[in-house]
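dumping this here before i forget
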Amino acid sequence: QVQLVESGGGLVQPGGSLRLSCTASGSIFSISVMGWYRQAPGRRELIAAITTDGFTDYAASVKGRFAISRDNAKNTVYLQMNSLKPEDTAVYYCNADGRVVDPDVDYWGQGTQVTVSS
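structure:
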């Protein structure tokens, strides 16, 4: 069974940092663009993505504050979040999109809550 398991969310004060992790099972990780989305009331936003070759892209709202990386040996993608703001509060989801290679590979993690508040 394919799974994406996320960890690392929590409560942090404004200006603080958190690191999210997402570990994939099976062989999907090696063929997938890995992305982090966040869901706030009324909208879901792609905030960061990393290709299998390590190329990255960010939403304007997090550029310069967040960093996505992947460890292919551990089948894990990370999202380092710095200088957090209250508006970063959301449920964060990891996505594995391997549809370029396999149309069936499009999987989501269970979500992890990030709350930025004093």
